[in-house]
Amino acid sequence: MDARKTLTAARRAPSAQAGAPAAGEAPVPGSPLDYGLLALAVAGVSMSAPLIAATAAPALAIAFWRNAIAVGVLSPLALWRHRAELRGMGRRAIGLSVAAGLVLAAHFGMWLPSVDMTSVATSTALVTTTPVWTTLLLRLRGRRQPGLVWAGTALAVAGVLILTGLDLSTDTRALEGDALALGGGIAAAGYMLLGSEVRRTATTTAYTFVCYTSTAVALLCACLVAGSSLGGYDAGTWGKILALTAVAQFLGHSLLNRVVRGLGPSTTSTAILLETPGATLVAALWLGQTPPVAAYPALAVILAGLAMVVMAGRRG
């Protein structure tokens, strides 16, 4: 009788599969906690552009240091308290995490220089096309998206264009900057998809440690090749780099890595569109840059598009 009960319980127990929750984490997909953390993540990445604009250092060096400092902070936690999780990731998860780090480095390496080559408005509009590429890449992988996802994504991108004004130029250097910004948006989509795949089995700490380490190494190589100065900054510049690491890297990217498992890449990448009005608000309060009149209706359009994607995800 006891053996029969044991066999029945074993059959009812969830199997260890690729989609099982990562060890030590058991969030409910689409839970209020996920959405709350997503809001904090958007607030964090919204600080990125204003802080970068106020930091007197090369763009590639800023990107390198924000990742290198993040790795330095994560190392004791990952290598001591989470070393068992790192060992248990497996070759596939580690390989995908490294790939995600390289794609994230490509995102930083293309987008940040584009700001100096084309207008800020065009660069922002093109790099935040991430949800479009996320949806297309998911479709190429055989995952058919509901019409509500496509409609919501298009509406949210339209809101960004309303806010920034897509002023494409015929200048050769500006067109190169436009291409880099667009490439940065595509790279961000790849980063989001790779992260969502790894996060099916790996914890946030293990994934972000491997990912950020790969990003820092790749950006260090890029800085050395480009001749970007990695030091000699004043105390104020270092303070802004530390602030950028805290709010944009840890509060922003790390929380995005945390919630992408529950919310999925479509909802998470669409929410990143809120970075544009968020950065506009921060610039208005901190740098004295008055937001355009279109900022308020554009924010409403972006929120409407995001709501459509979220509803499609919850129905799915």
Domain unit count = 1
Mean pLDDT: 77
The tally of beta strands, per DSSP, is: 0
Binned strand content? under 5%
Write a structural description:
- The chain is 78% helix and 0% strand.
- With 316 residues, the protein is an all-alpha fold.
- The protein has one domain (38-315).
- The longest helix is centred in the C-terminal third of the chain and has 37 residues, at 235-271.
- Residues 1-28 have low confidence and may be disordered.
Summarize the structure.
Residues 1-26 are annotated as: Disordered. The protein is mostly helical.
Topology:
Layout: H1 2-12, H2 32-46, H3 48-53, H4 59-81, H5 83-87, H6 90-117, H7 120-127, H8 130-140, H9 147-164, H10 172-198, H11 204-226, H12 235-271, H13 275-287, H14 295-315
Record keyword descriptors for this entry:
316 residues; disordered N terminus
